[in-house]
Amino acid sequence: DDPRQVLAAAVTGPPGTIPYGRMSGGEMGDWCQKAGMEMAIEVLANNMRNRVLGEWQGQAHGSGGDGRHLEIVIVATAPECQGRGVGSALLRFLGEVADADGVPSHLETAGSRNAGFYANKGGFEVVHRSPVASFEHEGG
Which of 13, 17, 23, 87 would bridge 77 by S-S if both were Cys, CB 3.0 to 4.6 A apart? Predict the structure, then answer.
């Protein structure tokens, strides 16, 4: 095992930053480029699924909220590491980060399978459920 191998990753928005759903694809691409994350530009900024989800998020959130939360935009575990506790460890770490900042965590997901994972492994609860345009996905 290579100790430098990435097993899981998360994209987050710290408290008080621009919400993902309110950021244009171009703006997200600019930020990814400034951070030296060229691959993320294709995955986040130029991805139709993420665009649809981002538009939905902007509409669902409206102008409410003060941004005092840790926004968890994406959580991913390498396929070969799934089922080994890696994603659960990442969720626990993100919870600890939010606790250290004294803010709640917030994430959106698609499908019952993912909602169950976040509830069972991260202690998240569903507080709102709504359709996303014509996007259908049951998670996983």
Answer: 87
Cα 25 from chain centre: 16
Side chain identity at 63, as an amino acid letter?
A: S
pLDDT in tens, 81-92: 889 999 999 999
DSSP letter (8 states) at residue 60: H
Q: Let me know: does 57 contact 20? Beta carbons within 8 Å.
A: yes
Distance, in Å, from the CA atom of 40 to the CA atom of 134, rounded to the nearest integer, reads 24
SS3 74: strand
H-run or E-run covering 53: helix 48-61
What pTM was estimated for this model as a whole?
0.68
d(CA 93, CA 76): 14
